[in-house]
Design brief:
Largest sheet: 8 strands, mixed
Radius of gyration: 19 Å
CATH architecture: Sandwich
Strand content: 15-25%
CATH topology: Jelly Rolls
Oligomer: single chain
Number of strands: 14
Strand order of the largest sheet: 1-2-10-7-12-5-4-3
Distance between the termini: 38 Å
Structural class: alpha+beta
Order of helices and strands: EHEHEEHEEEEEEHEEEEHH
Number of domains: 1
Number of helices: 6
Length: 339
Amino acid sequence: MDKMLHSAPIHTNLPDCFVFPADKRPPATAAVVSLPIIDLSRSRDEVRRAILDAGKEIGFFQVVNHGVSEQAMQDMEAVCQEFFQLPAAEKAELYSEDTQKATRIYSSTMFETGGERYWRDCLRLACSFPVADSPMAWPDKPQRLREVVEKFTVQTRGMGMEILRLLCEGLGLRHDYLEGDISGGDVVLHVNHYPPCPDPSTTLGLPPHCDRNLLTLLLPSMVPGLEVAYYGDWIKVQPVPNAFVVNFGCQLEVVTNGLLKSIEHRVVTNLGVARTTVATFIMPTTDCLIGPAEEFLSEDNPPCYRTLTFGEFKRIYSVVKLGSSLNLTTNLKNVQKET
């Protein structure tokens, strides 16, 4: 627990291990580029076109009228803040640097390289479906955490599965193509906590990366911090009240043979205000075999990606740091030559 940023005394100076060279933290553009905002209550044809257009253009969008109740969102935000405000002793047994543990709290990130660290603490939870089968090793404090997380996760996963169905229809796939094992793994939640940072200009909360899963649904907090790669630049995401930020994971890029892209994103820190977000990851099962769908292949458009189990993909992702490159295709081809 001594590595947890939020449990330490207030930092007046940024420790050297968090400081990055200027070329690793280029500033975001000053131009205003808004993520598309999609109202999921509109007609089905309109929504699926909007999702597909947003996915092809930027790989990120925000959704409103999405079916997750305002109460569930507010309760989730509140209970997560309560968790990080608990005394360190009440969270100590959850701390672990073992990346295989389904439930744990830890500091910095799995992207840590060369001794450099990122300004983030994280509570990781894995939720099975039905939720009654979820691991019982979840925190028992705050007392209402389990009830709140279960309700939030059921509603958020439901929203995500509907987005996937709409996307399939827009792509010309059968509506349930992305159901089953490819979306049937544990729903993983990362409750990311970014404490106030003494020098946001010299560090990052999370490095540039692509998500390795199928679909990510972010409850973003109204404190800005997320930035998305866009035509060689970085754009700041302006949160919308009661909206989720949605982005495609690497598996959607593979399935569509590169038609849809898993786009790099990063998190910057804030000088005076803590930021807490909840990222919900819809994941394949470990042994799910994933490759380009036949519908996206032809003589003129051969497979750009290997067909791998999700477990193999995760191993490759961690070895070659797929998340640190914009060109997932090149990385996978390089790995294929090496293995």
